[in-house]
Amino acid sequence: MRTVTVTPAGRRRYLEILANYLLRNRQVIDEHHWWLNTREPGDVAFLHRLVDQYPKFFKIVSRPMRGSDLIGYSIWPYLRSCEAADTLYIRLDDDICFVEDGAIAAMRDFRLAHPEPFLVLGNVVNNAICTHLHQAAGLTPLEWGRVGLECMDPLGWQSGEFAARLHQRFLKEIVRGRLAPWKQVDLPFDGVRRFSINAISWFGADMAAVAEGPTMPVDEEPFVTVDLPRRLGRPNVICPEALFGHYAFYTQREYLDIIRPEILLRYKRISQSADTSQAYVLPLSSATQIGVLKVFGATRHVVRHSTSEVKALAKRAKQWWRGKAA
């Protein structure tokens, strides 16, 4: 059976990292498809350069983009069309910033050995449900706050500050070679609740049997993690050894980009070299750039959020005055 990886693409600064890991896993992956989901010229040009450089491995898949489509609905046609009977598919978000050695092979092998679940899910660092389970296993401190068993948990999904602490801890674990506990962890999960699909796997034959076609209005994430597993009686399962790092949900991105820009650069350094210690050896130009970004970024972050707080205070004052006048 062929193994094809796919990615909704994408943002160049993330793709530069993910592409390194994909190329490193060509002995496992037969082909990688970039689902074109951007109109940004620089990002599109970068994807075409990758395809030109590795034409037998990378492929761009394009569909008409409608500005009115929400992200889940715009991705469903791509996902639904991955239905080749002889193919096992693995979908990775474009901002997967770390792929443990052997993770893709582990997901493929687990998928083949466990045909019962509709999806096999990755063990993803910075995925709220996985974080809840990591906390239960003692991998993440409870002192940072408790993350609930919810896809959009206010802490595990929404907080950029929490994501930064999680990444900083995980980066140190990578550099120190202490990832075994993260892969040997028990990940009990009912398999029929919403789960952020940062890394998932399915059989093409299973997708081909889904009644909803690619042109139907389907929100991909709740549909494949909740609706289909319940309808088919095939709960999804997490594969512990398929260990990935996920950079950020949109709710976390501003904080990470502005306050902790070094995090993504450290992940990029790790993707470029088998020597993980290089994550903390930054070129002078990069270190200088990070310093500038932090100073100006922190100022912008404070001003922006202070302005929001002032507006909120003014709104409450206006409501109070109206109530008093009435």
Question: What features would you describe in this structure?
Answer:
This protein folds into two domains: 2-281, Spore Coat Polysaccharide Biosynthesis Protein SpsA, Chain A (Alpha-Beta Complex), CATH 3.90.550; 283-326. Helix content is 48%, strand content 15%. The protein contains twelve helices and eight strands. Strand 2 (31-36), helix 2 (41-53) and strand 3 (58-61) form a beta-alpha-beta unit. The radius of gyration is 21 Å and the shape is globular. The model has no long low-confidence stretch (mean pLDDT 90).
Determine Rg (CA atoms, Å): 21 Å
**DSSP helix count?**
12
Order of strands, widest sheet: 3-2-1-4-7-6-8-5
Total domains, how many? 2
- Average pLDDT number: 90
Secondary structure tally: strands: 8
The CATH architecture assignment of the largest domain turns out to be Alpha-Beta Complex
The CATH topology annotation of the largest domain reads as Spore Coat Polysaccharide Biosynthesis Protein SpsA, Chain A
CATH class annotation of the largest domain: Alpha Beta
Helix content: 40-55%
Distance between the termini: 72 Å
Portion in strands: 15-25%
Shape: globular
Report the major sheet.
Answer: 8 strands, mixed
Q: Which stretches are low in confidence, meaning pLDDT under 50 for 5 or more residues running?
A: none
Q: What's the SSE pattern?
A: EHEHEHEEHEHHHEHHEHHH
- Look at the helices and sheets and give the structural class: alpha/beta
